[in-house]
Write a structure and sequence with these properties.
By secondary structure, this protein is α+β, with helices and mostly antiparallel strands. It has 16 helices and 21 strands. The protein has helices at residues 3-14, 58-67, 116-127, 141-147, 176-180, 190-196, 247-255, 270-274, 304-313, 316-323, 352-361, 385-397, 410-418, 437-444, 464-475, 479-496, and strands spanning 38-43, 72-74, 81-83, 86-91, 97-102, 154-161, 164-169, 210-216, 220-225, 238-243, 261-263, 280-284, 288-294, 329-330, 368-375, 401-408, 424-430, 499-504, 507-511, 515-516, 532-533. Helix 15 (464-475) runs antiparallel to helix 16 (479-496). The longest helix has 18 residues, at 479-496. The protein starts with a helix and ends with a strand.
Amino acid sequence: MRAGVAALFLAWSVWGCSARPPVTEPFGTPPPIPAEDVLIVGKPDDASGLDPALINDGESSQVCRNLFDTLVRHSADSMKLEPALAVSWKHSPDGLTWTFNLRKGVKFHDGTPFNAQAVLDNYNRQLQPTHALRFPGNRFPYWADIWGSNPCLIDSLDAPDDHTVHFHMHEVVAPFVENMAAPFFGIVSPSALKKYGSDSFKHPVGTGAYRFVEWIPRERIVLESNPDYWDGPPPMKKVVFVPIKDATSRQLQLEAGKVHLITGISLENVDKLSLNRAVSVLSQPGMNVGYLAMNNQDEHFRQQLVRQAVCQAIERKEIVRALYHGLAVVAESHLPPMLWGQADLPAYEYNLERSRQLLARAGYPDGFKSELWYMSAGRTYFPEPKVMGEVIQAMLAEVGIEVELKAVDWGSYLERVGKGEHKMALGGWVGDTGDPDNYLYVTLDDNNVDRRRGGSNLCLFKDPEVHKRLLKARQIVVQEDRAELYVEAQRLIHEKSPSLPLVHAPQVGAVHPLLEGFQLHPTGTLNLQYAKWKRP
């Protein structure tokens, strides 16, 4: 490693450190808890919208998870599916029709009844371009990523009565019910959609544990307990989400008791925070991937040799050591290591000489100029995206690739990168299900390249052999057969190198030590239904 890159790592490793000796003994005392049952959550950024069908980012879905219910949901602490707005479900022998039996007696926050027609309205507005509740500018990105849009895997829906809904499929989709648990498929009040129209994303009305009170953009989102919630009213009477971009500021406000739960913790602070009695640190392996997305339709990165050269110019082990303090693991695939369907892949070797040779073979013996986008707010997989960008910039300079860095606002980041406006970009994914389909198909399949709306394939990578395997794996139900297809697909992806998988990062949060009933979830969502204060 050259001196310039080493110096950058050294600067990062001592960044923020003081001259004081490291803390090795417990310290601090818990700040007072609120007199009322109020929970304040500090997050890296604001929501981009509060209509679950219109969002595809974690900051928004964490809020929506508490406002809206899905037909099925994951349990509070695992990926196990359990009933929510549907009490039972089954599929036809050919797998092409799914029947959901709906929960009776549920009402939306506006007092209107939840029934089969509400389900039809919610999903038909995403399925049918001329639906009355589809308004100008509606994109429905997650629907398109999972089901497709032209054609859609869902053919039609019908309701034989008020409490039964049928989904009719064009083809079998093995992870259908798993996908329906994603918060992006939350059910919105049709009456509210009619009332607010294109502004519905500012006026969320669901059936969830909490009701909407107000949203002052970039300042706060306020929710209140739903006393009529079908699963019992939550203990917290009010929840306030506050965007705090700076990780250190979030931490200091938690230690002072100004906020009570934070996400997006800087990993270099985990050890010290764990000794502070004013907070309780929560951690679990991350069901995520952070990667370098190369635009495979860019003049340089359309060449496989160039992409392979980039992969061999970046020292990922050093990134994990210095930027993640050894708490993350080097990624070889978009598929996190705790999921089934793993392929035994050779590591991308860090080899600068080999990288230069590949660039020369591609016609760039002196390198070239490029651009790297990074998101304005930290993510679980990239707690410090600017620093990650700087490190990649320095490493690529060693092989003659001159990179200009560009920060892009998180609110528009995924759409713009999905449209292919970038050359290189930091990309990532936190799984919504425990199925490989949610990683490999969503982030790397041909069907999710969409330069018009902005697809979830941020590499704009298309390959017929990969596509064939990922589609077939969705259409069969035997897990062993599906796993074999995913192994084959990952080997092809590794050879083509559309992206460079960088890290699988731990999911880390911190709470007031007297906050009970909250735990991190593998999907990264925030389920505040059971959160409560431990009072004397």
